[in-house]
Amino acid sequence: MNKQLFKFNFFDLWLGLMLFLSAGAIVYFVYALNWLGLIASLIITIILFFGLKTNFHNIPALSSQGSEAIKKSDYIFGTLSLLLDVVALILVCLGRTDTAIITPWTEISPWFFVIIALNSLTLMAALSRPTTNIYKSILLAAYYFSIFSVAAIVYRIGYGFDPFIHQAAMAEISRYGYILPKTPYYLGQYSLVAALDKIGLSVFYVNQWLLPALSALSLPFLLSCLHHGRNNKQAVWITSLCLLLIGFSPFIITTPQNFSYLLLLATVIFLYKNAPWPLSAATALATFAVHPLAGLPAIFLTLWNYIPKIWPRCEHFAIYKRPVYLLAAAILVFCLAIWAIAGFSPLRLQSYNLGALTPEFSNQESYVLNLSYFLINNYFWLLLGGALLIFFKRRQLWSKNDSYSYRAARILGLTALAALAAYLISRGFHFEGLIAYEQEDYAARLPIIALILIVPLYWELIYRAVLRVRELPVAARLISMVGVSLLLTAAVYSSYPRFDNYHNSRGYSTSAADIAAVKLAEEKGQGEKYITLANQQVSAAALREFGFRNRYLPVADKEIYFYPIPTGGDLYKYYLDMVYIKAEADTMRKAMDFADVDRAFLIINRYWWASDKIIAEAKLSADSWERINQGEVYLFEYNR
Questions:
Q1: How do strand 531-533 and strand 552-555 relate by DSSP bridges?
Q2: Torsion of CA 318, 323, 325, 326, to 10 degrees
Q3: Residue 241 in contact with residue 219, Cβ under 8 Å?
């Protein structure tokens, strides 16, 4: 028996996970994710996994684990870094809340940023030591976890809106094995969560922690692929740490879109380092199984990379070598992907608004905020500038002897340029089925994808900069380390929602008062069908408490949820009339006529714009009203 089949490293585990995501998606789409479906998914995964290991023997780790022993002096920096991670997490835990907040930074002590800055310095010192790579991976993973998990800890009930929708869907799948209608989206993540739920992990906690924890644990190993073949083993780890300067907001909250970003990054790294094809192909397919917007470019890049290798003499594939065809094809793929995830909604072209891309310079706050917002406000231009710098320095970054890396870099760079071009084009799209402030949501994801595509290229650029810094005198190196630690702290601040003199993220979190309001409305409903007009965070509370099953009302030729979901739907339009025009009984009667119900509720949060006026009007027009949590939320009841 081949003993190599039963030896596992991180990349074997990663391959198994990717195969399970794809197998689970297929089984769910053709059957269900009950016990039988999950067992079938697991069997398919095992067969494929050991089949691939048989063909390729043991898939090797792409980075050397290092042979240097850990010295006593290494423990000093390592222990100090881990202690600072613990202190940072304690400060975050002390800010945990179930009230409605805009940003976690209003709840967390400012000392958190001091700790992060000190930890960044300490970690750079630890990564500079000539010790084992697994030791450095643990330190880097702990640092990632301390900064990726802020939202999961602070927001006791949950953060954002989309996670509540996916949580309700996953709870439904875990309970019944499926949710109707079945869609080809998100199934990779749903299959994983369903499996974890079956072994006893709560859907709520998995939904909170899956991506922050998985990103923190996997990124050190994924990025270590980029270390392979480098002479300076200390500089490569500092380079991977410095990559956080470009931001990490996609990894702080679990949604299929964000999960797909992590998988797309893994696909890009595997392609760039010419990893064994099972890793690249399985990760690309899993990316598509989780979300098509990231999955389509992942599959596109994988095919573009491997088809010339499979049929090197086929004349029909000569177009793969021409950059102009790659650019045009990639632009088309991205634009079609935007249209597809918008639900193939009818679209029309509108006037372009490129004014938002104008460079901004501000100087009205502290030096830390000035620096942070210079990076935030000019993110598009910094991204474009970095890409241009990489282009003009390409001969220095990739030697002529490394033809594969040079070719991979060109493919990734052109695809990223195509994503940016598709972003500019799609800013002129207007989707009829989306509310005004959601019109650019899908297109806004393309610059993130563009950035992920060129992460290996940025890594190469930063690596050269780190090598230059390491040649400087000690004092200059110390100044550089302090500067990098401040930039990393600014990246942590800017990767989360903010509320300061520069920016107001506006979106409040779902609160305990929202939960109390939807429960009270349910109690007053007395088992009858009813509707509730409320903002999206209250609707998220309803999703959390009641889910989807038996909560839809038949309206004409379709069904609507009994809270305003989606925000572009008909119920939300009645809610906007109540809060922006007048909270009067006539509007509520029209909403009840539309939904064919005899009872309706209006929920108003105290933080809502002009809430005093709305509450005063609703008190006069409603049949009854309740004040919840010392007036944080008001519930108004209307009966026909």
A1: unpaired
A2: 100
A3: no
The tokens of 613 are what?
A: 């006026």
pLDDT at 437: 46
Same structural domain for residues 613 and 490? no
Query: Which helix H or strand E contains 277, and what residues bound it?
Result: helix 277-290
From the CB of residue 476, how many other CB atoms can be counted at a distance below 10 Å?
11
Query: Tokens representing 116?
Result: 């992060």
Q: 62 in a domain, yes or no?
A: no
CA–CA separation, 520 and 469 (whole Å): 61
List, as own/partner pairs, every contact residues 362-371 make where C-beta atoms lie below 8 angstroms and the sequence separation is at least 24, other chains included.
362/502, 364/501, 364/502, 365/500, 365/501, 365/502, 368/113, 368/486, 368/489, 368/490, 368/493, 369/500, 369/501, 369/502, 371/486, 371/487, 371/490
504 within some domain? no
| Same domain, residue pair 558 and 418 | no
Q: What are the angstrom distances between the C-alpha of 117 and each of 84, 85, 104?
A: 10, 11, 18
State the Cα angle at 524 between 518 and 530, rounded to 5°.
Answer: 75
CA-CA distance, 548 to 417, in Å (whole number)?
A: 40
Q: Do 91 and 34 belong to one domain?
A: no
Return left, alpha or beta for 58; rule: phi > 0 is left, psi -120 to 50 is alpha, else beta. beta
Asked, for residue 507, whether it belongs to a domain, the answer is no
Eight-class DSSP state of 499:
B
Low-confidence ranges of the chain (pLDDT < 70): 1-8, 54-74, 308-325, 336-337, 339-373, 375-380, 382-384, 386-388, 391-403, 427-442, 503-504, 566-568
Does 471 lie in the same domain as 579? no
- Residue 411 and residue 431: Cα distance in Å, rounded? 31
Percent helix, percent strand, percent coil in the chain, to nearest 5: 65, 5, 30
DSSP state of 625: E
Residues 6+ apart with CB under 8 A from 159: 151, 152, 253, 509
Query: Quick one: 101 and 143 in the same domain?
Result: yes
| Helices and strands, number each (H, E), in the chain | 26, 8
Cβ contacts of 157 within 8 Å, gap of 6 or more: 98, 509, 510, 511, 512, 514, 515, 541, 544
**CB-CB neighbours of 293 under 10 Å:** 24
Half-sphere exposure of 160 (CA within 13 A, CB side): 19
Q: Which 3-state string (H, E, C) describes 115-165?
A: HHHHHHHHHHHHHCCCCCHHHHHHHHHHHHHHHHCHHHHHECCCCCCHHHH
Are 483 and 569 within one domain? no
Domain assignment of residue 602, yes or no: yes
284 and 299 Cβ atoms separated by less than 8 Å: yes
For residues 533 and 434, state if they share a domain: no
Number of domains in the chain: 3
Range of the domain at 544: 512-639
pLDDT tens-digit readout, 368-403: 666 666 766 666 676 667 666 776 666 666 665 566
Q: What is the CA radius of gyration of the chain?
A: 26
Angle formed at CA 284 by CA 280 and CA 287, multiple of 5 degrees: 140
Q: What does the chain come to in residues? A: 640
421 lies in the same domain as 530: no
Domain-ending residue, one of 494, 529, 559: 494
| 462 neighbors 375 (Cβ within 8 angstroms) | no
Q: According to the model, what pLDDT value does residue 91 have?
A: 96
For helices 187-198 and 35-56, what crossing angle results, to 10°?
110
